[in-house]
Amino acid sequence: MKKVSTDVCIVGSGPAGALLGLLLAKKGHEVILLERFSHFNREYRGEILQPSTLNMLDDLGLLEYILEQPHNRIEKGGIYASGKRIMNFTMEDLSHEYPFAIQMAQATFIEALLAEAKKYPNFSILMNAHIKELVKDEDHKIIGVKGTIEKEPAEILARITVGSDGRNSTLRKLSPFQVTNEHHRSNLIWFTVDWPSHLPYDLMYMLTGQNNLFMIPKYPNKMQIGYTFTKDQLSRVKENNYEEIKKLSSQQFPEIKTQLDAAKDFVQLQVISLTLNQWSTDGFVLIGDAAHVMTPIGVIGINVALADAITAGNVIGQSLNEEDYSEEKLTLIDQERKAEVDMLQNLQIRIESIIFTTNPMISRIRPLFINIVSKTPLVKKLMRKFFFPVKSETTLSKI
Q1: I need a labelling partner for 250 at 20 to 30 A (CA). Which of 8, 243, 289, 301 fits?
Q2: Number of domains into which the chain is organized
Q3: β-pairing verdict for 2-11 and 152-163
Q4: Is residue 195 a part of any domain in this protein?
Q5: For residue 99, what pLDDT band results from cuts at 50, 70 and 90?
Q6: In the 3-class helix/strand/coil scheme, how is the chain assigned residue by residue?
Q7: Cβ–Cβ under 8 Å, residues 283 and 159
Q8: Helix/strand/coil for 221
Q9: What is the rounded distance in angstroms from the CA atom of residue 280 to the CA atom of residue 95?
């Protein structure tokens, strides 16, 4: 069995894991990053970097470099009902300094972060790593992970082990933490079509009763569409081979009927919100969706995970310098991040209850209500709270 020791072992090279690895390597700590797959080309992962995230990347000295990578720039969006645009919003409403969001393929973003991390000899990434168990000492404290790397048995011992392995986290399941709340009201079908040349590259959301549509620009010239439906509609949607989705989408948005007719490769996602009683214990931390699953509402999941990584980078860096890997020390991550995450998850659930309503009266008055409220200062205030919350401290030196 291959045995390796390191300062930090990060399991999961998603955006949060890759950024955390870079930040800790920059500070001189030895980092081993484990990735389950052999590549990062996976569809329908978080790809929208909101203005708040651009702000944080700028603080870290990474924004200019990230903007050099292939991406779409998104400056505005709208909500539609019955073929009419009932609400407009701009990214400038969220930030005058960063008046845009960007859509970047997650593989492109991760590979850009890893290219920087690999400049440090104290950083390494191991692909095809499948973790099976946590390694514990005689006091039952977590001191690493065990599994296979390239199909060979391996054990990685670390002063601190970090789980950043996403919404279906293995490390969460292996951890001593308890799920305190799990919310699952609806499902989402993702698919991709060509972006119609006559439409602007905006974020679009279409209210269509119980079944609504998200439309997101996808680099370089695609439209990623999310079709929402309730749990009890799932079997019917699958039975008719998704033709109902094409038909209803075409009725609500005839401008893209040609593109919808050619749609294929539908992917289902359960819309789940999940919280844990804690994220940290002695020598062990969970971040991102491993610690708190966000729903697709507002496309903020990747942004929340990156904020976790920055906070974790600060706390873990201090922990290693002080040789203090205790729960008391590492729980500073929870203390800084949990209130914001709880607030955002609660807002997501409230918004979901409105847009996925089965009440016919609410469905009828919803467009008028949104149209009226969108013209008040309240909307900008709520949007800023949702998309641009108080940022985590980015006290690390620029990359």
Answers
A1: 301
A2: 1
A3: parallel
A4: no
A5: very high
A6: CEEEEEEEEEECCCHHHHHHHHHHHHCCCCEEEECCCCCCCCCCCCCEECHHHHHHHHHCCCHHHHHCCCCEEECEEEEEECCEEEEEEEHHHCCCCCCCEEECCHHHHHHHHHHHHCCCCCEEEECCEEEEEEEECCCCCEEEEEEEECCEEEEEEEEEEEECCCCCCHHHHHCCCCEEEEEEEEEEEEEEEECCCCCCCCEEEEECCCCCEEEEEECCCEEEEEEEEEHHHHHHHHHCCCHHHHHHHHHHCHHHHHHHHCCCCCEEEEEEEEEECCCEECCEEECHHHCCECCCHHHCHHHHHHHHHHHHHHHHHHHHHHCCCCHHHHCHHHHHHHHHHHHHHHHHHHHHHHHCCCCHHHHHHHHHHHHHHCCCHHHHHHHHHHHCCCCCCCCCCCC
A7: yes
A8: coil
A9: 32
**pLDDT mean over 87-113:** 95
**pLDDT band at residue 398 using 50, 70 and 90 as cut-offs:** low
Mean pLDDT of all residues in 278-294: 98
Instruction: Name the CA dihedral angle for 364, 369, 374, 378, rounded to a multiple of 10 degrees.
Output: -140
pTM of the predicted model, to two decimals? 0.95
Locate 354 and state its tokens. Answer: 């409105």
Task: State what percent of residues in the chain have pLDDT above 70.
Answer: 97
Can you give the pLDDT at residue 378? 83
What digits encode the pLDDT tens for the residues 210-219?
Answer: 678 899 999 9
Q: Does residue 204 lie within any of the structural domains?
A: no
Give me the domain span that covers residue 36.
2-180+272-387
Q: Which residue has the tokens 């390239």?
A: 150
Q: What is the mean pLDDT of the chain?
A: 92
- Tokens standing for 371? 């149209």
What's residue 200's pLDDT? 87
Residue 395: its pLDDT value, please? 46
Question: Does residue 265 fall inside a structural domain?
Answer: no
